[in-house]
Design brief:
CATH class of the largest domain: Alpha Beta
Distance between the termini: 9 Å
Strand content: 15-25%
Shape: elongated
Strand order of the largest sheet: 8-7-6-9-10-11-12
Number of strands: 12
CATH architecture of the largest domain: 3-Layer(aba) Sandwich
Radius of gyration: 22 Å
Structural class: alpha/beta
Helix content: 25-40%
Order of helices and strands: EHEEHEHEHHEHEEHEHEHEHHEH
Largest sheet: 7 strands, parallel
Oligomer: single chain
Number of helices: 12
Length: about 325
């Protein structure tokens, strides 16, 4: 049975209200959390976001845990193998921000294809440059989606009105649906005009977008990454953009994201490859906000609460 839950990050007010209404005791610690100063063994569950690492040491001290809930779509900040070994259920809420990510990915692609950001910047400087800002339509293009889970499927569904051909690849079989035809990677390499990445960050996907991967494409393509920055080797992306193998890139996530998160920009610690990207007119950035909407904040928390309640009922039956 789940009785006491520790919440380590500020969430939508709904999450506290609903959990308490269901009878759970909720403690909140948002600042200066120190594992050595708090008895975490009294908690049956923990709710957090991605700013805290749940490692073996943490799990050993929290020896009564029934679940660890990560609000969002990734659980790479949790020692999954050790948690599973200790019988702890891992909960996440990718269903809650899938539509936000999908809309954002399309928005970035439209901005890049139609030079919306660049022409705006020229306009406010008094430049009226129509020909150099001639756009490219999504209609008629072949879009390859790598990773066809919650966000990949939402992206394909929202693209369905653009009259494009949508292909998907996933390590699991039978993931394709009405909106995307599942194919092997060779077909993705041969046919794609646009690639959108929707994979979790794992040992398998770490640095998967690299020179050897990119050179397998039969034609240049546009690239969208709203998954995890560590899935892309930035140096290799820079070279692909430089030599035209990749026409342009939409990046909501970065390999060097932790430097931004820790406000280390003033220390000039960003690699040269990043500066190559920010000075390129082939790239647009956003600061990891693809799944960061007012609606998704509520929906992710709602989904977490639903899963905790379901798990508690399951444990009570057992």
């Amino acid at each position: 049975m789940i009785k006491k839950i520790l919440i380590l990050d500020k969430n939508h007010p709904f999450i506290i209200y609903k959990l308490k209404k269901e009878g759970f005791i909720c403690d909140e610690i948002y600042d200066d959390f120190n594992i050595d100063k708090i008895d975490i063994s009294v908690y049956d569950g923990i709710i957090l976001k991605s700013n805290l690492n749940i490692d073996k040491k943490f799990i050993q001290k929290a020896n009564n845990l029934k679940f660890i809930a990560r609000i969002g779509s990734g659980i790479e900040n949790i020692d999954k193998n050790y948690a599973f070994k200790k019988g702890i259920t891992l909960i996440s809420s990718p269903e809650g921000n899938k539509d936000a990510v999908a809309e954002h990915a399309i928005g970035m692609l439209l901005c890049l294809h139609n030079n919306i950001i660049f022409s705006h910047q020229e306009m406010i400087k008094g430049k009226w440059n129509r020909e150099n800002n001639r756009g490219i339509e999504i209609m008629g293009k072949t879009i390859g989606i790598i990773g066809y889970g919650n966000t990949g499927k939402a992206f394909a569904k929202k693209l369905s009105g653009f009259d494009s051909r949508i292909l998907c690849y996933d390590i699991l079989s039978k993931k394709g649906d009405f909106y995307a035809k599942q194919v092997d990677m060779n077909t993705i390499f041969q046919k794609s005009d646009i690639i959108s990445l929707h994979v979790p960050y794992t040992e398998r996907t770490k640095g998967m977008i690299n020179y050897n991967f990119i050179k397998k494409f039969c034609k240049p393509f546009y690239f969208i990454n709203t998954s995890r920055g560590g899935c892309v080797l930035t140096n290799h992306l820079v070279q692909a953009l430089k030599y035209g193998k990749i026409y342009g890139a939409c990046l909501d996530v970065l390999e060097y994201e932790n430097i931004f998160n820790h406000n280390k920009l003033s220390n000039n610690k960003l690699p040269k490859s990043f500066y190559s990207l920010i000075h390129s007119n082939k790239v647009i950035f956003t600061p990891h906000i693809a799944g960061w909407t007012k609606e998704s904040k509520y929906k992710m928390d709602k989904k977490i609460v639903e899963k905790i309640i379901f798990l508690n009922k399951k444990l009570n039956i057992i």
